[in-house]
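Whether sequence alone determines local backbone shape is best considered at the level of individual chains. When preparing material for the folding task, we compiled for one chain both its residues and its backbone structure tokens. The sequence in question and its structure tokens are set out directly beneath this paragraph.
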Amino acid sequence: MSVNFHELIEGFHNFKESYLLKEHEFFDRLAHGQNPKTLVIACCDSRADPAILMGCRPGDLFVVRSIAALVPGAQDAGDPDAVLAAVEYGVKHLDVDHIIVMGHSNCGGIQGALFPHKIADEKWISRWVMLAHPVAEEIRREEPSGETELLARRTEEGAVLLSLENLLSYAWLREKVESGALSLHALYYDMKAKTMNIWNAEREDFEPIVPV
């Protein structure tokens, strides 16, 4: 069920009564600065909020959201580029220890990358999802049957890995990874299966996260 604007305003008052005032010491500390150790790059999709999905509180995550959780490589970044500005801030000013790229199932941005003719007249969307076209084309070659659900799943996962690869195209970020000061992680949220999957580099596949 969707929420209208007036319900959102009322929601803030409920939040204030239930959290801000009851946990005022915690929120007073946050008012003086942030110190998140993890930066999450997630899709703009309203169903895939990383803070909610990972059970985090305000101040735990520095979140960057873009269509399909895409990150442009150094050769494709705009000037200016909001995604890279946020990532640079997280790495250089917040000194985060981890960067997570989190994709998800049933992603509209990836559908645009797979079927660009459907968004050909949408200038900003089509130009952005072009970033995922190399993955979409590679998956089409690997899956000649063209089964839509499989193409989408594999492209959604591949786009997450592409964003990680693109992050490493920036020397200031790659140097921190190579020194061990920064770790990169790939997650994929499967809405239908209700699982969060993590990339296993040894098996070259996404696997459901098992509760500890």
Notes: The longest helix spans residues 148-167. The mean pLDDT is 94.
